[in-house]
Write the structure tokens for this entry.
Amino acid sequence: MTDAATIKIDPRDYRLDARLARRIWRLSKPYWTDKAHWKSWVLLAFGLLIGPLWAFYNYRVAQITAQQANLLVARDEAQWHALFWLLFFLALGKWLYDTVLALLEMLMKMQWYRWLTEWVVARYLTNKTYYDIAAREDIDNPDERIQDNVEPFVEGVLSFPTRVLATILGVVTNGLLLTQVTTAMTAFVLTYSLAGIAIQTAIYWPLIRKNFDAVAAAADFRFGLLRVRDNAETIAFFRGEGMEEQQVKGRLRRVVHNKMDIYYYQFKTSFVTRLFGDLWTLAPLFLIYPLYFSGKIEFGVIALATGAAMQMRTSIMSLQDYIPFIAGVAPRVVRLAQIVERFDAMDADAARHEGQIRIHRGDRIALDRTCFETPGGEQKLAQDVSLSINPGESLIIIGQTGVGKSSILRSMAGLWTRGSGAMTMPNVDDMMFVPQKPYMMLGDLRAQLLYPHGSASLTETELQSVLERVCLPDLIEKAGGLDAQRDWGKLFSLGEQQRISFARILISKPRFVFLDESTSAVDVPTEAKLYRTLIETGTTFISVGHRETILQFHDRALRLLPGGEWELLNAETVETSTIEPLGKARRVDLESGLLPVHAGA
């Protein structure tokens, strides 16, 4: 996985513009255009429809406040108490409104948050997008992006409609009240508030990039700690704690630097924003009180006008305060949208088939003038390869390191699609790919053996029989039973994990198996037994390997050469010294313990 610090950032990602709006729409569209989510539309509509109640509440409170002030001057205690209780019940109504609105927003938020997270994860795991992102290394920390950025995005988008409606209603209702008293104050509130929005936007525009860098730095810090956890044993062997501490502290320094940069910027700009807010309190002194002194308004109207102006200003301020919120959410929108944009790009590439190997489905494996390339097109590998493997046959791919042996298996698996030509491959359900480092999933031992399908129903006796065939007779006892749950990747050695992979083959019974140095960590006798067991099943298989001892289990050998050249040979005619033709290949003589040296070709 790549650090965010090493990835080139598009300067357009730092802007509040139409591109950001399109990304927000791209993330919102799948949920809100799905008819299955009509309940969310009902909740949103209900939340918007009860918005006028809030405006009516403010309107009535302003009128009652003015009347109460006049009653105080007139010393009319009875009427004043009547209005007091009216305000009391209106306050209860506001409390009920706020509670219902908060509940609706929570329900919509959690429904959308869950659906959007599941949708992104499903797309992430479809068409091996997760592998493409890892291979290209141009999107950092995709796990953090999915985990941490969906909820802030949902919260930000859902709050926008209610803020807009509240602003409109607040400006209209309080503007009407205020205009009845003084048009000058109404004009001043509008001008002052719009100027505040402009200043706020200008101030917080640079903060988008700072927030972007802060989010990326925090993701890198988390990734650095995860690397220590995932490689704890290796670090312990090397006694690399000192260097690991240095790299973690380096990431932490970047986090602190970015946060301090934000805090310092906010501190500097707070002088402007606070001054702008404090000057507001002087407005009534110049625009409302002179009307009272001149006898044009009653004393109670001062409270009405001041309250209406304040409510009007507060309504507009709700949008103004939304700007720093958006400045903080925008980087999360960008980081989440970049993953979704990769989904879309991969779908478009698959539809066009441009620069890609064409894959057809059949009952055999065939390559027709197939040219292989790395995912980014940086390197051309084997070129114009043509061969055919019929059911029951086997092939081993050999050659020096770096010529693209494993890359051919990646292309056959559909992980790498860059290149040209065509391949005929079996249906995906008929194939199993076994890497050198097996994947040990989370779960109990039974699920570990049944991976990746998990649907086979085998008894403990049947599973024990399979394990004995792959030289693991004591595995169930060692693990503590089939229902035991452990960190299997740490409990089992690499040799045991590779034998578990062969057990998975016997359980899943695929017709075609692809082995990428899948016996590199077992001894030669065990390797021979695993291959003989595989041959007994009648499975068609392709291997990538360096050991000369596995040649005997294959019919033919595809030898890859530098410069994209290749040759197809009978496996029995391949000289053992040509398996690793560059430099010197070493193998262990298991009987003598010596390391004979074989000259390269």
Remarks:
- The domain at 20-351 is CATH 1.20.1560.10 (ABC transporter transmembrane region fold).
- The longest helix spans residues 77-124.
- Residues 514 and 536 are 16 Å apart (CA to CA).
